[in-house]
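Bench notes, afternoon.
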Amino acid sequence: MIRQIGALPYRIAADGTATVLLVTSRDTGRWVVPKGHLMPGLSQHDAAAVEAWEEAGVRGFPCPAPLGDYTYDKRRRRGTLPARVTLYPLAVVEEHASFPEVRQRQRRWFSLPDAAAAVDEAELGALIAGFRAPPAPSAALQDMIPAIRQGLGRRIPMLGWFQSLLPKQGRFFDQFEAHAGTLVGGADALARLFQVGGEALGTQIEAIISLEHQADEITRDVLQDVRRVFVTPFDRSAIIELIGVMDDAIDQMNQTASTIALYGVTTFEPEMRDMAGIIVEAARITAEAMPLLRSINRNGDRLNELTGRLIAIEGKADEIHEAGLRALFAARRDDAMGFIIGREIYSHLERVVDRFEDVANEVQGLVIDHA
């Protein structure tokens, strides 16, 4: 069987919806993901990123932890051979009009359901369809709650009077989602920081610092609401723990950026960039999970899938961390200070991923308690 790698280029809109980029194959014109053979000297996810550039004209942050595998029949002059493709998510940050295979392929952004239906391979369609669940349709319900309460107050005057004495219901779900947004922004800036290097670091460091301040404000609001709100959707300690580990994640991103600025580091190891790619994926998963908490009973299965992937990619990050330290030690045997600084950066990156695993554990606890 032929072994190949593929990329799933994606973008997440402000409302949480995802789109993915497909290209047409050169032989049949059917819709496929960018894919190709393994490349000597490149890791599988980096090779997938190269294919995404050559076939679709996009660049971004590949995640070293694959989404899964799918099989298809690869056409050759003398017939077909079975091929297995390992698919890696790629967070797109650049899309170019000119790229190596621009005259050989078409490209198009699809919604997840449309993309899953457009591809011929059932396994690939399942991977695309399961990449991200639709945003929880909860905003309309949240808008209806005040009107419902007003109606009850008119029909039962004593109830309305009693409700007026109670603190308003907290905005915990909105706050969780807003904080997840700072994690996504911070992860994106962190990944850009490790990719651009040089004098362009300052912009990304400033972005991370700004987002960390926003996250702190959200966390303070949550802690104030926990104290003053009469009814909370979950146990108060669970709310505090969840927002706390989310805040720890962006604090560690800030610590990573601060360490880089403090020591004036301008070049980075490949494994550092790989860990940043893991963090981008962890933030994406967290941002999907937070709206689903509004209805844990309905979304328990999906939340278990998401937390399972968070824990899995944390394990992958541990492998990258160990490999990076070994490579760093080998390269800096005669540069003790360079090794110490590099090890500190690796340590902060590992802690970022660990905090996302803590997020997964907290969400799993909520699912167990409430689903």
